[in-house]
Amino acid sequence: MSILVVGSVAFDNISSPAGHVENILGGAATYFSLAASYFTNVRVVAVVGDDFSAEHEAILKKRNIDTLGIERAPGKTFRWGGTYSDNLNEAKTDFTELNVFEKFQPRIPKEYLDTRFLFLANIHPTLQAAVRLEMNGVRLTGGDTMNFWIQRTPKELAETLRLVNVLLINDTETKMIAGESNLPRAAKKVLALGPQALVVKHGEYGATIFFREGAFGVGTHPFRAPALPIDEVKDPTGAGDSFAGGFMGYIASQGEINREVLKRALFYGGVMGSFAVERFGTERLQNLSRGEIDARFQLFRELTHLE
Amino acid sequence: MSILVVGSVAFDNISSPAGHVENILGGAATYFSLAASYFTNVRVVAVVGDDFSAEHEAILKKRNIDTLGIERAPGKTFRWGGTYSDNLNEAKTDFTELNVFEKFQPRIPKEYLDTRFLFLANIHPTLQAAVRLEMNGVRLTGGDTMNFWIQRTPKELAETLRLVNVLLINDTETKMIAGESNLPRAAKKVLALGPQALVVKHGEYGATIFFREGAFGVGTHPFRAPALPIDEVKDPTGAGDSFAGGFMGYIASQGEINREVLKRALFYGGVMGSFAVERFGTERLQNLSRGEIDARFQLFRELTHLE
């Protein structure tokens, strides 16, 4: 089954203890698409500027990603610069130039309207909701958000959360939405706002999926997937979006959606996140094989499973 | 097989969002002993003051813990007061009165000298080393330490690390010993200082065990165990020592020591830590059954294992 992602395409400048790169292709939709492309057909709705060249597009095309929904607007593509110090968990933003992304109004090509799986990457919640409402036949919607929207547009976000089946956010965002410092309690509050399942990403400690009672199966037992202990994290940019791409891409590739599929999807999310951080930008995600992915999945299993 | 723990017995005042308690029995050796007592026979070497009553001793005796090695010294028992705010991961120390613990010189009763498993809880590394050297027949030594010794007595600590088979510390301590901010690299450096295995405790995210090449098995693949998402953490005091008690106690109860045993021990560590935090002080650890422990072990398995 195809999956549609709506989100940002960007050019990034990134500094980390491992080096420095400039003007490399990034953005949530890019990381998501590349990661998901190893599991299913991917369609992208995004906006880019005049500086988005055929070579940039070729990065996506090479992975068979459908770029029909990438709108070209006059002006420059969204640009972001960030620096990671020794603590690679957090970036210091050096600059943000929204450029053409500032007025982004997602337009869904009619060829995309039959897409059954949808991922709403981190954009204004009102845009997320509008996209979801336009996509009538969607079977499962995943979504992301961030502290900016949680604080500035709580009402709009609440509307969107009612339309999202699986929300993927981090610990801080979960606690911020819920106004609650205990994670399982915060998760319960977030689930009460709409989503059937909540994936909380813990960075280097993996991720936990919480279920609403009765959603995708029986009971409310959560499930945890690890992250891989990695000797050299070169660039954590896009790890969360790559996680979402692996998670949603795997789900879209399966006939059924049940707890066991969602649990395996959580592992595949971790797997794709672990590849993303091994090189700068999307480099590692551009040249994987399904064999490498499955070998790493096996590594994640050995990392957590008793005999 | 019996296990001997050397460490502190204390009286604690604890405040958390869930309430306040005063003068309750605590200390690393107490939490460790109670947790380990569900798996094996436990012997304790510690020092207490005049205020340590028969009722306090009865808490240990009831769990069949051998208290012969608990020395009574004139004066007061070690006292500690701490407050947890909404973020239950870290305590603010309200007061520390070392009292009789200040001059603690562990004396091993001759009846204990044949003990095959040893846990050196967090005390001065020179005392830890002296105990280990006195115990000739020891098969496996576990150890703990803290930032205070890492910073103040690095040479003494280095001596002790050569005598410890499994070191159990947290992320910050691991990175501090290694002078390295990447966890897997830091773990490798710590293992190069002596221990065959290193257990890094991640608080609410569980724990990872790293192995030195060839130690207890083949290869260097780490293993991760989860922590249980808990709706109400009443009191995190002693969670790490309870973890160590479950971990070491389980190992001591097994005939063989191999990777699979150490992995299961990591799960049992998490299990005992999860019980400890559900009530103030050692309350929950005093009244468990092996059935409850095994049911929770099963919960940990379901939390992490794919079909």
Describe this structure as you would to a colleague:
- Two copies of one chain form a homodimer.
- The mean pLDDT of chain A is 97.
- In chain A, strands 5-4-1-8-9-10-11-12-13 form a nine-stranded mixed sheet, sandwiched between helices. A four-stranded mixed sheet of chain A has the order 3-2-6-7.
- In chain A, helix 1 packs across helix 8 and helix 9 packs across helix 11.
- The first copy, chain A, is of the alpha/beta class and 307 residues long.
- Chain A has eleven helices and 13 strands.
- The radius of gyration of chain A is 18 Å and the shape is globular.
- The A-B interface holds A 86-88, 181-185, 187, 202, 204-206, 208, 210, 221-226, 229-233, 260, 263-264, 267, 299, 301-307 and B 86-88, 181-185, 187, 202, 204-206, 208, 210, 221-226, 229-233, 260, 263-264, 267, 299, 301-307.
Q: Strand fraction band of chain A? A: 15-25%
Alpha carbon gap, first and last residue of chain A: 34 Å
Largest interface: A-B, 38 and 38 residues
Radius of gyration of chain A: 18 Å
Number of strands of chain A: 13
Tell me, briefly, the overall form of chain A.
globular
Strand order of the largest sheet of chain A: 5-4-1-8-9-10-11-12-13
| Average pLDDT number of chain A | 97
Q: What pattern of helices and strands is seen along the backbone of chain A? A: EEEHEHEEEEHEHHEHHEEEHHHH
Largest sheet of chain A: 9 strands, mixed
Distinct helical segment count of chain A: 11
Please identify the oligomeric state. homodimer
Indicate the percent of residues in helices of chain A.
Answer: 25-40%
Derived from helix and strand composition plus strand pairing, the structural class of chain A reads: alpha/beta
What are the low-pLDDT stretches of chain A, counting only 5+ consecutive residues below 50? none
